[in-house]
Amino acid sequence: MTDTGSTGDLSGPGRVEERIAALGDWRGETLRRVRALIREAVPEVAEEVKWARAASPGVPTWSHEGIICTGEPYKAVVKLTFAKGASLPDPAGLFNASLDGNARRAIDIRESEEIDPGAFKELVRAAVALNMSRGGLRRTASAGQAKGGGPGTAAAGQPVLLSGGNPQIAKGDGDGPVQAYIAAMPGWKSDLGRRLDTLIAETVPGVRKAVRWNSPFYGVEGLGWFVSFHVFTRYVKVTFFKGAELQPPPPGGGKDPDGRWVDIYEGAFDERQMAAWVRQAAAIPGWQGF
Q1: Over the stretch 33-74, which tens digit does the pLDDT of each residue have?
Q2: Do residues 258 and 243 make contact, with C-beta atoms less than 8 angstroms apart?
Q3: What domain count does the chain have?
Q4: Are residues 168 and 247 located together in one domain of the fold?
């Protein structure tokens, strides 16, 4: 431990395990379960005990490109505080504390309470994706300032837009990176992205989501990815990886004998036809890249 009044960061899984084991009650068991879920969601996560003092053993903390969350044991609850929780999607409603904070959100877990493991891991992955996108933004913005600005330089708090206006979002699994991409789509394309995302999720319950190569990907576990979309200057391209097998096949085609796509311009698009393509595509083996 550090001297009284000083702050210490004790790195390494062993330090976190020591801190959890020292609790010796339900709070330790709760933190142990939470820790296992975090490590499943982000195998490369960094663990440390932060803010250790002579009068305080410190707080278990998990990080990847920035803090994901902390785990603080109190008498009646274990509090999991997400540093950027206010910016994270929480469709399962896990956050139940610190709801008025400008940046943080927390999950209070009481004795005998359980947390939804799947929803919690998605929340952790979304936090990592947000850290990575903001980390990339800081590096790119700094480089842009050093060069005097110019094309591709992001405004504060906004992802960089690449060629054609496509958002630069770090590779990541889950809904979080996809929602970050959609929010960064410029102009009318962001609303179209939300409509596409909603249509796909409603047509294929339990669909798997990810961002790969600065594009949202949608897939089915065991069958692979079946559709993706990408921003261009005047349209959004929706690509079905095995589109040649769809009836009727989407109109766009190129060198890939399997792939087909449709380019959507500003204005209405045929949602009924899109839903039919999505339904068909999700039922056949797609691109294997999970």
Answers
A1: 999 999 999 888 899 998 766 666 889 999 988 899 999 999
A2: yes
A3: 2
A4: yes
